[in-house]
Design a protein that fits this description.
The protein has helices at about 10-20, 30-35, 40-50, 65-75, 90-100, 110-120, 130-135, 140-155, 170-175, 185-190, 195-210, and strands spanning about 1-5, 25, 55, 80-85, 105-110, 125-130, 160, 180-185. The chain is α/β, with parallel strands linked by helices. It has a single domain, classed as TIM Barrel (Alpha-Beta Barrel). β3 (about 55), α4 (about 65-75) and β4 form a beta-alpha-beta unit. α1 (about 10-20) packs parallel to α3 and α6 (about 110-120) packs parallel to α8 (about 140-155). The longest helix has 17 residues, at about 195-210. It binds erythose-4-phosphate. The site of erythose-4-phosphate (E4P) has 11 residues, from α7.
């Protein structure tokens, strides 16, 4: 499973990039707004930090404008992926950009029929928002399982990018349901390596090694 960082904070992105752990980045207009940085400069910086795919969202409502924005965004860097909303206009724009070899991430996907449309329109990625479904008391990882089955049944190659991830359990369950990628917010990423039993075990091992009086180096 690939891990993307769901963030527009360059410091965070650099930190995880240096660890060699992240395979790409997703942004959205809210994350860009929170970063308080000029948009083009920010996207250029993120695309330099990681060579992996960086999703950047178009903001117009009509397909014509989305296509124009898509071409403009793709000029910023070769690893830009144009994020388009899961609307009919977004689907039309997805078809045009994908035909022009510009990768598209269809975002705000909340049903398997939407995911079929995204795949038929040639999307490189589809983003089911599992946390927001959970907020409405619907199991978001069930949606991922459905999409996986449908894509496998029909040989669709669109990648399933589990988004709106809020917990470690979301990551585990998305992986088990067959998501290709999970995009993870930095605060959750920080805690992924931690477990209280790891800390406790390490404490005991270190104390016993100290008592043994031996050295490796
Ligand atoms: C994905 O591409 C989105 O940026 C993100 O996962 C949205 O998550 P949220 O529901 O926590 O805002």
């Amino acid at each position: 499973m690939d891990f993307f960082l769901d963030s527009a904070e360059t410091q965070e992105i650099s930190k995880f990039h240096e660890l060699g752990i992240i395979d790409g980045v997703t942004t959205n207009p809210s994350l860009i707004y929170k970063s308080k940085k000029p948009f083009r400069e920010l996207v250029t910086d993120i695309c330099e930090i990681t060579k992996g795919p960086v999703s950047v969202e178009a903001i117009s409502n009509s397909n014509e404008k989305m296509v124009e924005e898509g071409f403009e965004l793709a000029k910023i860097a070769s690893n830009v992926v144009v994020k388009l909303p899961m609307t009919w206009e977004g689907i039309k724009a997805c078809k045009i950009l994908s035909k022009n070899k510009i990768p598209v991430n269809v975002t705000l996907c909340f049903s398997s029929t939407q995911a079929i449309l995204a795949a038929k329109a040639g999307a490189t990625y589809v983003s089911p928002f599992i946390g927001r479904l959970d907020d409405s008391n619907i199991d978001g990882t069930d949606l991922i399982r459905e999409i996986r089955t449908i894509y496998t049944n029909y040989g669709f190659t669109t990648k399933i990018l589990a988004a709106s991830i809020r917990t470690k359990n979301h990551i585990t369950r998305s992986a088990m349901a067959g998501a290709d990628i999970a995009t993870i917010p930095p605060n959750l990423f920080h805690g992924l390596a931690n477990h209280h039993l790891t800390d406790k075990g390490l404490e005991t091992f270190n104390a016993d090694w100290e008592k043994s009086g031996q050295k490796i180096l």
